[in-house]
Amino acid sequence: MIERISQLRAEGEAAVAAARDSAALEQARVRHLGRKAELPNLLRGVSELSPAQRGAVGKAANEARRALEELIAARASELEAAELERRLTHDRVDVTLPGDPRHALGRLHLLTATRREIEDVFVGLGFSVLEGPEVETVYYNFEALNHAETHPARLWSDTFYFSEEILLRTHTSPMQIRAMEAGPPPIYVIVPGRVYRRDSDATHTPQFHQIEGLAVDEEITLADLQGTLLQFARAIFGERREVRLRPHFFPFTEPSVEVDVSCFHCSDGVAPTTGFAGGARGRCPLCKGTGWIEILGAGMVDPNVFSHVREQGYDPELVQGFAFGMGVERIAMLKHGIPDLRHFYDNDVRFAEQFG
Ligand code: 2NL
Question: Which of 9, 49, 95, 185 could link 53 by a cystine bridge, Cβ 3.0 to 4.6 Å?
Fold first, then answer.
């Protein structure tokens, strides 16, 4: 019996050594240690042996089983490690491959893309980007910006009021007052964001986007404004552009100007045969034959505006500033030849996917 046990153990050891993979090893385990295998059966029959045989046979059979179990466990971890290693080297996954099926990538909305493009130009010129609250006070939205009590924009019919004192900002200028309150000159900031006016027709939406700029320092002149806006116009509309300033009026600047960029569709107001309107050579539809396109409003900060932040270091006798404001929708429409403001807000993917 002891001899048979040695034989079974030797057979088991040989089978384990011969197993080339986990599946073969499992087969060997079932054959040599499974429920129907001879060695475990022999162990189960030990109690029926004579007391004289029982001790020696039981001991030998137990040792044989334990030895085989340990051998199998050791071999199993060897084989599993080797198999894992093989999978890792052979089943390499390229995580940079596109998904399958490919997912359509999202895009930036044209207004977001345009806003960022404009921001990049001014950041390149040394301006910081600031955002501010859309719910504002009459003080920041009108009073500190030198809007007379009688200014039409202050009417209930033109502006969204929550109360006598609280409103939806009608421009991003209030944040520029807040920026001056927050720290002394020099200051070079642009403020992008949503603004609100009670206006809704083919060319006006009650909510739209502005970017305003403010530069306050010693010895700032209108020439600095013109140079800054020339760089802006060339970055957005092309290197060959020029700008022109025309006198205008804004409550918070003196003098105030409207700024035109030279037409980027025609030369001297004469339209080429293809492009925006197509057809025959004639009056340019973009600049209406004038050679110039209005892009924004600007001016030198009115001393009355500085008087509200004089205590923060903005003495109108010592500092000057220029400011400008533009509509993001208008810039995007001009640059991309978009015929209708409402395309921005219809969210038709056939429009949206052409940009961004
Ligand atoms: C336009 C014109 C403009 C300003 C905005 C401004 C701000 C401060 C002081 C003085 Cl804090 N001015 N902003 C100045 C001139 C024009 O916007 O047509 N915007 C769409």
Answer: 49
What is the distance between the alpha carbons of residues 20 and 273, in angstroms, rounded to a whole number?
A: 79
**Cβ atoms < 10 Å from Cβ of 281:** 11
If we measure between CA atoms, which residue out of 38, 194, 181 comes closest to residue 115? Answer: 194
Q: Which of 236, 231, 249, 241 is nearest to 291 (CA)?
A: 241
Token pair in block for residue 201: 């027709």
Distance 211 CA to ligand 1 centre (A): 9
Q: How far is the CA of 252 from the centre of ligand 1 (A)?
A: 7
Half-sphere exposure of 268 (CA within 13 A, CB side): 0
Separation CA 100–CA 97 (nearest Å): 9
Burial (CB count within 10 angstroms: exposed 0-12, middle 13-18, buried 19+), residue 42: buried
Q: What is the pLDDT of residues 29-69, one digit of tens each?
A: 889 988 898 888 888 888 888 888 888 888 888 888 898 88
Q: How far apart are CA 138 and CA 326, in angstroms?
A: 22
Record the pTM: 0.72
Task: Kindly give the number of the ligand 1 atom that is closest to the alpha carbon of 301.
Answer: 10
The span from the CA of 180 to the CA of 44, in Å, is 93
